[in-house]
Amino acid sequence: MARRIRTTKNLAQRMDLQYFKQSHPLRRWRLWLSILVPFVAVGWFAVQRANSQKIYSSGPLSAAHSVLGRQCNVCHVTRLGLFRARVSDDACSKCHNAPAHHADKVTFIASCGSCHIEHRGSPHLAKTDDASCTQCHSNLLTRSGGLQFARVVGDFDKQHPEFAALRPGGRDPGQIKLNHYAHLRPHLAGPAGPVQMDCQDCHRVTAMDSSWPYSQPGSAPNPLPIADGVGDHLRHSRSRDHMLPILYVNQCAGCHVKDLQFDKRFDQAAPHDQPEVVQQFLVQKYSEYFASHPRALAEAGAREQLLPGAIISHKATTPLMIPHNRQDWIDQQVMLADRLLFDKGCKLCHIMIPGPGALPTVAKSSIPRRWFLHAEFSHDAHGLLTCEACHDRAPESRETADILLPGIRSCRNCHEDGGPRHDAASGRCSECHAYHDWTKEQPTKGTFTIPQLRATASP
Amino acid sequence: MAGLVVAAAVYVPYSRTAPQGANGGTATGLIYGSVASVCMLFAGLLGARKQVPVWRIGRAQTWMRAHLWLGSVSFPLILFHSGFHFGVGLTRALMWLFVIVFVSGIVGAMLQHFMPRLTTERIPLETIYEQIGRVRSQLVAEAQIVIDEVSAALAGNVSQATAQQRAASASAGTMGGVTVASGLQVDEGASVQLQEFFRRQMQPYIAQRGSKGMQLADRNRSQSMFQQLRVLLPPNLHPAIEDLENICEEKRELDQQTYYHRILHGWLLVHIPASYALLLLGAVHAVMALRY
User: Fold this and answer.
1) Residue B290 buriedness (CB in 10 A; 0-12 / 13-18 / 19+)
2) Which of B89, B129, B243 is opposite residue A4, by nearest beta carbon?
3) With an 8 Å Cβ cutoff, are B269 and A120 in contact?
4) Averaged pLDDT for residues A70-98
């Protein structure tokens, strides 16, 4: 029986020499798939294109604009039946009136789309990249006038100047004699005994509606004065961002009302107002008193004894005369009360300027409502920190002129360029700065219907 | 590679300073996209080059190297072009297609690098893949010849026995002990069992593509089955059993080769169609991007 022998020759003879001419399943599959897959791809594109223009989209819309996702032509205004990829500022202005800042000075006005980059699925389109700002501010050039800001501003970590108020020569413009150190001492005399004051007893954000612990007894908190100062535009009056202004009636009266007591014969203190108003109040009070106390003239000799301590006044040299009639008596009482108030009570906090007339002038308090005139800061967003964590100089400050604003180094402890990438808070320009001059914002008038926006049939 | 390093070096400041961030719409982004498109087109020309192997335009090896390098470079260039964003709609489809093409290409390149050596090592009887079906039927024929020869040999033993031996064979087992007569009876049974083994086990195993559900596909089990056959058959026929065993071993190697071949070339079923789709939709994207 012959053995099965494998030689190169008989192995070669096994082969069909024309085998390469026959189709093979793998090659056949490859061919068909190479036809089918591109065909399916183009078919998919055609179907998508027929259904909507979204196929052209380069990325998901921002959260605020996602409602426009079905109607590209709301922003990409169609011309000659074809939409344009470039969105004109006119399309943005249909809904947003956002005046550019320093429009008269800057060398060019950036288009909306050059800073607010759409189709990136951004949750906050307003938070622009730093490059949008540094394209000008890294080497600031103006068309006219000098530079109001630093010429070179780059990233927050290294190329941002110190806050304006803290630069050399800066001082608190306030004219109220406030000693933070004294107010934060323990066992301070409060309206009902010793108290330990806290920052929030006087400094609160707008939205906090709890009662003030040291407000004027029995009075409702005064309404917010929304008038003077920068950044009072509605868009910037975010209720939890900014501190309420310091008002006597809200923050001071609880303890300092006693400094406006002018006569122990009256329970009511003098009003915290301009000297003319105080004067009028005093005349009225003494007139009423005289009418109800026929023996007032006889008591007049003892009046000086009511005044605590020595009084130094521009009228101190005026000898006290024995009043002979009602008017003399009232004038004398008012003069004595004036001395007490204007030379002592008011001076405790205010700077009193001798006026040309009989009454002094109270220097305007000038407590800054906002320290950052060109930036936004939210106290609410920083609510997890103690006040002293940033305002570290406040507990030891004894002078009104002390600027207790934290410096940029304090901010840099937490805020870094690239923020979340470095486990830090963002250091982007748009965290604090707004490009648009919202004080010039005008209301816009809507132009779309819901079906136009949502690509649905009219109800 | 140097070009890629330059592209990456340019990308870093570009992405940090571009007011809109890195994206395909900027001049730099368009340059990245254009260069990547050219790379992809050249990489795609390998397919055309293979269709016409007689063209004397560079060596096949050069073409393959160019394909690999250009394909590898084009992917990061496209990422630079897109600013590492996938986008939505057409751009997202393109990016995913490119990922599929790129990953399948990398996998394919690795397979092409390692698999041929592995095949050579593990399949000494490797044949032309397209001829495996034909070789299988030849193996069936060869096995059939061996079976016929063995059966004939066994039948010869029985036919050449004397009447006395046949009578003794009939009574074998009743008297005890092993005799020539009892051997005749064994030969007849062995022939039947061999035929049965071939018909039920070996012939279907060799004839069919693959080895699913077949006992002979397992080498150990196959060895034990052939060992049983050796017990049944006289020693002079054992070389024939060895031939049958070799035929099964060859079939196992053919199956193994089929398996390796599918791995080695199966990725092309993904890579090539996806590449065509990518080039097609990429052209649509380029036209739309430049037009709008």
Assistant:
1) exposed
2) B243
3) no
4) 80
What is the domain partition of chain A in residue ranges? 259-366
Q: Give Cβ neighbours of residue B27 (< 8 Å, ≥ 6 apart).
A: none
CA–CA min distance A371, chain B (Å): 30
A442 to chain B, any CB pair closer than 8 A? The answer is no
CA distance A396 to B6: 57
Q: Which residues of A touch B150 (CB under 8 A)?
A: 1
Would you say the pTM of this structure is higher than 0.90? no
pLDDT of residue B175: 44
State how beta strands A425-426 and A415-416 pair.
Answer: parallel
Chain B residue closest in CA terms to A85: B292
Query: How far is A142 from chain B, CA to nearest CA, in Å?
Result: 19
Q: Which of A20, A57, A117 is facing B20, going by the closest CB pair? A: A117
Residue whose C-alpha is closest to residue B232's, from B194, B198, B199, B181: B194
The pair phi, psi for residue A415, each rounded to 5°, is -95, 130
d(CA A9, CA B220): 31
Residue B23's pLDDT band, with cuts at 50, 70 and 90, is confident
What is the predicted pLDDT for the residue at A312? Answer: 42
Give the C-alpha distances (Å, rounded to integers) separating A249 from A202, A309, B141: 11, 27, 113
Distance between CA atoms of residues B85 and B208, nearest Å: 50
pLDDT per residue over A309-368, tens digit each? 444 444 444 556 677 788 888 998 999 999 999 999 999 999 999 888 888 999 999 888
The position carrying tokens 């501010």 is: A137
A42 close to B282: Cβ distance less than 8 angstroms? no
Strand, helix or coil for residue A106: strand
Cβ contacts of A267 within 8 Å, gap of 6 or more: none
Instruction: Decide if A108 touches B, using CB distance below 8 A.
Output: no
How confident is the model over A130-179, as pLDDT tens digits?
888 888 888 887 776 677 778 888 888 888 999 988 988 888 889 999 99
Q: What are the φ and ψ backbone dihedral angles of A194, each rounded to 5 degrees? A: -65, 140
Maximum Cα interatomic distance, chain B, rounded to a whole number of Å: 110
Query: Quick one: pLDDT at residue A82?
Result: 65
Which of A15, A36, A114 has its CB closest to that of B128? A15
